[in-house]
Specification:
With 472 residues, the chain is mostly helical. The protein has helices at residues 5-8, 29-44, 65-84, 86-93, 98-109, 117-139, 146-168, 170-173, 193-212, 218-235, 238-255, 265-284, 295-301, 310-321, 346-350, 361-394, 396-412, 425-450, and strands spanning 22-24, 468-470. Strands 1-2 form a two-stranded antiparallel ribbon. Helix 2 (29-44) packs antiparallel against helix 6 (117-139) and helix 7 (146-168) crosses helix 10 (218-235). Residues 1-13, 15-19, 55-61 and 454-472 have low confidence and may be disordered.
Length: 472
């Protein structure tokens, strides 16, 4: 990998005779992968395989003793690794998205004004467990393709398991509700068809990217991608389908564009972002008269202009936001289940069902943490794009993957709540990508300073790039 001089020449050069170097260290690759898989499975599969009354078990307090023990174990393990690798942790901290850290601090402080401080505090256990595992993921046994190398098989196992689960236990793996949107839709191992659709979308994108970037052979990418596409069809999530097609076209444009056109890619990404923000404003009806922009999407997805009743949910949420517009109701404190003392109980009297979320990630953040939280979210997204565009000059395929994940999430959050949501596996995956992006930038600086490390043992030419960690 060739380092762009204009980005990293400011790094201090290693003094002559400097004794420290970087060595190949893979000793902790498997334990870290197991911890990451455990985190993802905990966030995908309902506790105890309880697929009944899922909308009433949103708070972490509903978990079993084993579930709570696993969460605390992940939190403690991540904390211990941060202390163990404290020197590298401080270096990493300089490259982690600062707005993400600001959001975490704001969410923690929201316990002070939360309408349900106990629930907000329990949500923080999940939030910091995700952050701890993500930090551990990039501090131990790191290499440039580690994020996708761990996530591709994990998502494929979950998606293949969802197909087998639906076939073996259709009363659990397939929605039995009578309304047209859910009837016959598969949810597999997840809690809802939209969750399965989001996982399938991520799986299809990761395998398609792997093939485009020539990281995996077509003989591997094709069957694994077909598993993801099968779940995408079975879930009947039109948003996930449209999002997947859009992101795949974006990846083709970014990775297979002729060399002489590549310098225009940052401008193309900027245009995509502007179009997405314009669409978000139209969906939330923040500017009158912009409904005309939604007509093409309505035709593509088959939804009406209420987005299957979501506009009424957004209206009720907007009414509640007016009570605490700047700091919100507290992190995760609104959706605690249909409890008479909760403000969210109003949905039963006005819509005759309990949606369980705002079905819009941007609005969800405002409801929880106010417009201060929204500022943190927007700063986080723009900084993520900026970091990815900087990496694009150095490592095009990896930067393309991070940008693809951004667009996949930015679109899906228009109708689902995933941004910075401690109950969403999408949040865990994006947090993992956020820390991986930070480690990519740190790695460039460290390699510029220490140079490239020879592998500890001979490796075949086809092996992946070696992880680098500082020698003791």
């Amino acid at each position: 990998m060739q380092i762009a001089a204009d980005q990293y020449d400011s790094a201090p050069q290693r003094p002559a005779g400097h004794s420290k170097r970087w060595i190949d260290d893979r000793r902790w690759a498997m334990p870290v992968a197991i911890a990451t898989w455990t985190l993802m499975v905990l966030m995908v599969v309902p506790d105890g395989f309880n697929y009944h009354n899922l909308s009433t078990s949103a708070a972490p307090s509903s978990g079993s003793a084993i579930s709570r023990l696993l969460w605390l174990g992940l939190l403690g393990t991540g904390g211990l690794v941060l202390l163990w690798r404290s020197s590298l942790s401080w270096l990493l901290l300089r490259w982690v998205n600062p707005f993400f850290l600001a959001f975490a601090a704001l969410a923690f402080c929201s316990v002070l004004w939360s309408i349900e401080p106990g629930v907000s505090l329990r949500r923080m256990i999940r939030l910091f467990a995700v952050i701890g595992v993500s930090a551990m993921f990039v501090l131990l046994a790191w290499h440039r393709r580690r994020f996708q190398n761990v996530m591709r098989p994990l998502l494929t196992v979950l998606l293949a398991g969802s197909i087998l689960f639906g076939l073996a236990f259709p009363h659990l793996g397939i929605h039995s509700e009578s309304n047209a949107e859910l009837a016959g839709a598969w949810r597999g191992l997840t809690a809802h068809k939209n969750s399965l659709g989001a996982l399938a979308s991520l799986g299809a994108i990761l395998w398609f990217h792997g093939w485009l970037a020539r990281e995996v052979r077509l003989a591997v990418a094709l069957p694994c991608g077909l598993i993801a596409l099968t779940c995408l069809v079975l879930a009947r999530s039109s948003t996930a389908v449209v999002t997947t097609l859009f992101v795949m076209m974006f990846l083709v444009m970014l990775l297979r564009t002729p060399q002489n056109l590549r310098r225009y890619m940052p401008w193309a990404v900027s245009l995509f972002v502007i179009a997405l923000l314009t669409f978000a404003v139209a969906v939330l009806r923040l500017v009158p008269g912009m409904d005309v922009l939604l007509q093409p999407v309505v035709m593509l997805t088959g939804k009406d202009l209420t987005f299957t009743g979501r506009s009424e949910i957004w209206q009720i949420i907007n009414e509640h936001i007016q009570f605490a517009p700047m700091l919100g109701s507290g992190y995760g404190a609104y959706w605690i289940g249909p409890m008479p003392h909760s403000p969210s109980y109003v949905f039963l009297s006005r819509m005759y069902f309990y949606p369980g979320s705002a079905h819009n990630g941007y609005l969800e953040v405002v409801n929880d943490l106010g417009f201060v939280g929204l500022a943190c979210l927007l700063g986080y997204l723009f900084h993520l794009i900026a970091q990815s565009l900087r990496l694009l000059v150095v490592d095009r395929s990896q930067a393309a993957l991070y940008l693809a994940l951004f667009f996949q999430q930015a679109i899906s959050n228009l109708s689902e709540s995933h941004w910075l949501h401690a109950m969403s596996v999408d949040f865990a995956i994006v947090t993992l990508a956020t820390f991986s992006l930070a480690r990519d930038h740190l790695e460039l600086r460290l390699r510029h300073y220490f140079g490239f490390a020879p592998p500890a043992t001979p490796m075949p030419a086809s092996a992946a790039a070696p992880p680098l960690s500082r020698s003791a």
